[in-house]
Amino acid sequence: MKKTLILSTALASFGFAAQADITVMSWGGAYGEAQTEAFVKPFVAATGKPTIMVDSDNPAPAVKAMVEAGNVTVDVASLEYADAIRLCDEGVLEPIDMATLPAGADGTPAAEDFLPGAVTECGVSTDIWSNVFAYDSSKFAEGPTTVADFFDLEKFPGKRGLRKGAKAVLEFALMGDGVPASEVYDTLRTPEGIDRAFAKLDTIKSSVVWWEAGSQAPQLLADGEVAMTTAYNGRIFAAAMNEGKPFQIVWDGQIYENEMFVVPKGAPNMADAMEFIAFATSTEGLRASAQQISYGPARKSSMAEEIIFKDGKTVMAPHLPTAPENMGNALETSSDFWVDFDSELNERFQAWLSQ
Q: What CATH architecture is 2-128+258-325?
């Protein structure tokens, strides 16, 4: 059992993941570790079914490629919300019956216990996470406080880290240019708005270090390669709490969304995959996840009691994207927008990068 749990991602890349009863593909790093502790190990202990976690910089392309090739070796995958919607529409994912999800610990039916939008035709939310930006507080006597500060190279000199892709970067650029969160997608739906976002990115383009894997952003900050960087909030929290890094999150302009567990079409262990998702997204499962990393639970019952970090003393509420004090200028990712415009805007983004 222990050997099964620690199989490497290298084995999975050569097709050996099929040896395990259940294979879960996630994002690696602190996030993958949190899901292993909160979901995988308890599931194995409760059911006796060998289960492994394998890593990907972005599981969505890998899942689509597997299904299209007719060689699916993953049973469950963790996808961004828009990708879960899009791949469901494309027939790449299996539908998930809401009736199979357990009621909340207080008896509330799942349909009422999950937050709005947290369960879709093919996905169930594992958490609510956020794109934020962060800096090393030891490098600035007085640090940045607004998203506009990220783009101010004169006041805050130094390199900037940004995720290499259009999603969340274009929204972030517009907010940095003064567009209120409530108007971002209306603006981005116009040619002028798209031009405005890229024009804002032009102002820092020569100072950007691009990252692709979630683990890279805190590492860039720790190595001093950037003065500040966008990042997944849980990765910054983990670096601060687990490694003692002097990192500070700026919540202004955060872009938050649900992360979704899905089952690829043709998963080799379909019934077990559905059982795993039901187990992981229970009241107890989502609460356990929030004790490992600072992503908010998508069930009301999971938040009924105060959530304490695994260190036994840190109250998690102030570190969650959904904390009221962190939501002042927050933007919820529009899955509808990215389902419609992902290909178009990423093509333009790649063209812009090469200019």
A: 3-Layer(aba) Sandwich (3.40)
Mean pLDDT of 221-235: 97
What residues have CB less than 8 Å from 89, skipping those under 6 apart?
A: 339
Domain ranges of the chain: 2-128+258-325, 130-256+329-353
Tell me the DSSP string of 110-144: HHHHBPTTSB-SS-EEEEEEEEEEEEETTT-SS--
Span 130-256+329-353 CATH architecture: 3-Layer(aba) Sandwich (3.40)
Model pLDDT for residues 120-162, shown as the tens digit of each residue: 999 999 999 999 999 999 988 899 999 999 999 999 999 999 9
| pTM of the predicted model as reported, rounded to 2 decimal places | 0.88
Distance between CA 261 and CA 78 in Å, rounded? 5
Q: DSSP assignment of 166-186, as one string? A: STTHHHHHHHHTT--GGGHHH
CB 102 within 8 A of CB 282: yes
Structure tokens at 124: 């169930």
**DSSP sequence for 281-314:** TSHHHHHHHHTTSS-B-SBTGGGSS--B-TTSS-
- Nearest partner of 104 among 306, 301, 348, judged by Cα: 301
Choose the weakest-confidence range: 74-78, 119-123, 138-142, 232-236: 138-142
Between vectors from CA 346 to CA 344 and to CA 352, what angle results, nearest 5°?
Answer: 110
Across 4-13, 169-178, 185-194, least confident range: 4-13
Q: Using alpha carbons only, what angle is made at residue 285 by residues 31 and 259, rounded to the nearest 5 degrees? A: 45
**Burial class for 169, CB neighbours closer than 10 Å (0-12, 13-18, 19+):** buried
Would you say 113 and 103 are in contact if contact means Cβ atoms under 8 Å apart? yes
